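User: Fold both of these, please.

Assistant: Here is the first one.
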Amino acid sequence: MRRRPRLPARLPLDPYVLALLATVGVAALFPATGAGATVADGAATAAVALLFFLYGARLSTREALDGLRHWRLHLTVLACTFVLFPLLGLAARFLVPGLLTQPLYGGLLFLCLVPSTIQSSIAFTSIARGNVPAAICAGSFSSLAGILLTPLLAAALLGNDAGGFSLDSLLKIVLQLLLPFLLGQGLRRWVGGFLTRNKKVLGYVDRGSILLVVYAAFSAGMAAGVWHQVSLPRLGALMAVEAVLLAVMLLATWYGAARLGFGRADRVAIQFAGSKKSLAAGLPMASVLFGPQASLAVLPLMLFHQMQLMVCAVLARRRAQDPEAALQEHLDDQSDDQLDARRVVEVSPGVQPPAAQGR
């Protein structure tokens, strides 16, 4: 009898989300004003440029290109991230003003345009015994595409909320996002080793930079009075809409990948890479695209990030209990045993493999 998979003892509450919420609280109580606001905005601009420089310097385009042989899977994930998600976001337009205010809807639509994650997609794919190399490549492709596609889609679909196609907004995108990213890629061969050796320390730099961006954005939002537009019922409605959005994407990626003929391991990678949204990439992009409205624009993304972690932690453990996963693990173990036996024969010609010894 197959045992019913149990829920994890503790659902993952991302400590970084707690740090983000604490930063929001500090910005609400002690917003930067006057000269302090100018300093905070300048520091946030520099932090965004630094973040995208580090993204470019870390991202191995060679590894991403090596994964091109699995192009159908990567195109499927990209289509989920930058086609299906935005279409669902546009379809949610009818919820305004009944359930969502226009600013909250703008944030929800922006959430749908953000690239996929890398780390959590890989982690959940590994737990569920899926195709981990495919998840790595899919996340890398999504991050690369998002540098260009997310700002362009935001400008096209959000209109004035994200600055439109004005020369000023285009210049911001190029100077604060694209140029630092390309510079990081260009210098990767010289700084890549240093970044790898100091990965842990630079991780704190990443997160500290994003906290600074969030503080500047929410300070500007407090000064502009945007938080008067949010009420608890609206916030509850937003969370309900996001729960439906996540459920639809999880179902679409799993069953859609099956219809396209992908095997179980690939379906796992598609599901976890195609249903995720990156908080680390979305927060700095929003600060560039939305200005004073960025605080409301990133609220749906922050909520969705925690929701996807909690739901996918449960789902990954259920996927790990699939009969197909157990069978695949058994076949992999057999393959490893046969490989070990062949190595023994090669090293010691007088020793027969286990199958021959039993004859």
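And the second sequence with its predicted structure:
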Amino acid sequence: MTDAVDGLRVTRSGPLALLQDAGRCGVRRLGVTQGGPADLHGWAWANHLVGNAWGTAALEVTFGGLELVAERDLRVAVAGADLATTLDGEPLAGWRSLAIKAGQRLAFDTPVNGLRAYLAVPGGFAAPAVLGSVACVVREGLGGHDGQGHRLAEGDRLRVVPHRAGSGRDKAREAPPEARIDYRQPAELSLLPGAQVGEFSGESLYRAFNTSWRVDDRADRMGVRLAGPPLHCRVTSMISEGIGLGAVQVPPDGQPIALLNDRQTIGGYPRLGALTPLACSRLAQCLPGQEVRLKAAATERALEEYRRFRRTFA
């Protein structure tokens, strides 16, 4: 923090722009959730394109509406959703890094493809760590650019960590075509069956994996409700259990809720199982009304998929 310098100033604030590193791990026993990027894929690529190590803090911009002015010459990368991003009013392509000059304006507008965009700078954004992380969780008042869990507001400044010239972080980079996702397409979400899956009726299990679910407008960083045929479980009362990332709970109304990064730490509804981390990332980019399908996955295959993903950024 002592070496950090002003990098970007907020001239127009959007509904939800938050600093996110890899998340606040090892603290759920204290009732504190993990935070971190809702779309791990987009966040990781934004950091990778400017040469940052895994875990470096980047900016998550949800829905757009954000405008930033560079206070010094910077290299930046934008990945994830297409929020009609512009630089000085000119369209800016995502999934690549580029140099911007002091005084230039970077703006994120209405979602075109996806919901959340990620902005990274070489060395990362500097912020006070709280419980070992700068991940911003608004509900808990933890992390973020000020350490108090606040979303970016007009007049706020994002400070950056200077990097050594010639370190390779000044090179222009572009993500390969296979890394870029068309978030407008129906999403197939891998789910690891478990927990109380055996307590659901056979008809409900058939519906769960053979129905197109619609993303409800009741969706945020805590969780996403899926609308479709009601699922019925024989378990009507249970002791609350620890809730991991991607847990798919089914409350009494039978409509599944997939829990994401800012979820509660315990819950008492029966669960079908858990979405994989990459399935959570894909769901986090879905706009209300989009269709998704659940696909049962084997643990070994899901683990290998995640290991391949992580090796890309090693």
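The radius of gyration is 20 Å.
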